[in-house]
Amino acid sequence: MSIEVKNLSKFYGEQAAVNDISFTINKGEIVGFLGPNGAGKSTTMKILTGFIPATSGEVKICGMEVDVDSLETRKKIGYLPENNPLYLDMYVREYLEFVGKIYKVPNLKARIDEMIQQVGLEVEQNKKIGMLSKGYRQRVGLAQAIIHDPEVLILDEPTTGLDPNQLVEIRELIKRIGKSKTVMLSTHIMQEVEAICDRVIIIKSGKIVANSTAAELQYEENKQVVYVEFEGELSKNALKKEAGITTVESVGTNAWLVESDNAVDLRKLIAQFAQKNNLLVLTLRKEEKTLEEVFKELTK
Fold this sequence. Notes:
single chain, 11 helices
């Protein structure tokens, strides 16, 4: 396991920021760490990276305990905090050289060139960081997080402030990194989670309320719903009479949301119904909850 968390808690006085949470993340896995503001995401990430101590519980990075081998575990971690603290008076290359020397990165000049190309900083590499847009500052933050080739990458809101084209590029970069490293990232962008994450952990009020794949979270046991649109008139009762259909709801002219349990294939049943009643099916698609809807249900 690259990350092991057991019964982790963090209290500020009597207020629990994180309350007895446990999870593991394997090498090569990209995990989205989700939750509303104040749920405990950033606190958990700061404990994992050794920035703040836990009140109780155990955290291991690559088999080493964070509170015992603090310096050694930090060598294994690349961290991009939520507010991305940078030295604004330093030039991009100067800053990456500064960080690289802290980590004693070999062949540092070549590594800086590689990082600049990897995160798309070629045009801005000779500017002061304070002159950069928020999107390019995020790229500098990503470059410093991976310059020492860490085994574990922890990213707190890594795509904040990026435009749509930059979002795609950074997501692809994170996916490439995730093939050989462990990546844990927090975000409020559900499309980002669906695009790059292998698994989702959702935290609410310091407690984990879900730990699964996005597909499993969106799947509703013992229930399936399809949207169907026919060409021609059709009564609601005609559909409801079909064996296996439990609910029919009109959502437009000759358009319906049809629900059944998972004992039958609802799409096959509707296709047979259309053939039997000489109806042309214009649209037939399976309806699933979006990850955003699941998130709202679990954290409201």
